Amino acid sequence: MLDRRSFVLGAALLPVLDAVAARPALAKDGERFNADTVRNMARQLAAQPFKQGNRSLPAELDKLSYDDYRNIRFNMDRAVWRGQQLPFEMQLLHRGFLFRDQVDVFVVADGRARRIDYDPGLFRFEHGLKAPAAGPDFGFSGFRLHGLLNRPDYLDEIAVFQGASYFRAVGKGQGYGTSARGLAVKTAAPSGEEFPVFRAFYVEQPRAHVPSIVVHALLDSPSATAAHRFTIRPGDATVMSVEMALYPRTDLAEAGIAPLTSMFLFGPADHIGFDDFRPAVRDAEGLAVIGGAGEYLWRPLANPVRLQISVFSGSNMRGFGLMQRQRSFFDYQDLEARYEKRPSVWVEPIGDWGEGAVHLVEIPTPEEVHDNIVAFWRPKDILRKGSEYTYTYRLHWVWDMPTPPGLGRVAGTRAGGTGERRLFVVDLVDGPMPGLALDGVRADVSASAGEVRDVVVQPNPEMSGVRLSFAFEPKGAGLSELRARLLKGDTPLSETWLYRWTP
Length: 503
Hints:
By secondary structure, the chain is mainly beta.
């Protein structure tokens, strides 16, 4: 299920660091393990100066190409828990290519953590690749989990943890797309982004007839350490319950909690500069946010000319996500990538996270192999050195938002025009939209700069919805924030559509 882009995940973002053979203190092989073990390790590690982990590789694995790395394949007969009639299996991932960091993987069973030692026999080295010598310290680059998902008699790949603190999952019938991360630090900062890494994983042995698996992870970076506990439940919607304890090494003003990373190259609203047979190329088409006051926001994504950052502030944020809403093959026309099958990923905070804001970072990219979209929540206050911060949330890998609003939702955004006039067309479906009587319905459309004209609201029987269209004239503005929604009186009938226009 891994495509080429999965191997260049954030290739423009992943750090280039010199190898230093230093490793944090991990649980010893056979040591007792409980719910607090990784949290205690993270707390102790945060009190020590940061040391870059082992990134050195033997000559036969150094500087592997993408195709070379693809020729290292896990021997499926050696999968952890193979033949034990358990609902999950685990396969290890080799180091090499972009994945240089040594990651230690432990299995937790009967209250003890046992390290999986590297063994070249776990892998097949094809097309002339030479296997490295066995050694207890070589480690892995991550792992993938297989579980019951699409068929009751077959274990499908459901999740993968590999590369810095990146991980991905799928629901039933989906293919990999948008990724999540353990922590984002200094994303889009002028000083450069810092990429925390998962140093070690502790995977609890699954239990027969229990449809979930628990993964503990130790995260480390120059600015912070963290302990994560993931409870993963595959299904029509695969849900990860995440418990995170964060320990800043420094006063941390630019943290990103529950970060999501995706790709947007172009779509129907902006095809300029791409001579491509496909109408859209993207893993996600928009950012959805539910604010603390209950307002539903929809912001179509963009591949901008220059890096841009959007901030959606508010207290007690109820959720956000990078969503793929258009689900027809004909929306993408790509028989290989199958973008219509990429999951939407929704972050559901548990408890009140307090004051903060959802940040959306859009990075210019000329190719679809680069992840150029990042979304995360950032607390308003600085996270202080020596303190502990806990965040609990659920990650939903779904076809759409886990709890659709009782409002009309944006089904598509299109735009076109020439010169100083641009026409926007927004289609709305669901909620009260099917068969909506338009008497008394008005469109609330505004622009922070420029002028909005010729607003039209009309039925769209082809979608059992409503079409809102308007013209925008920038009047010399270099940027304008557009905003639109449908109202009846003062009552919203639709979510709020947002759009950042730039020349």
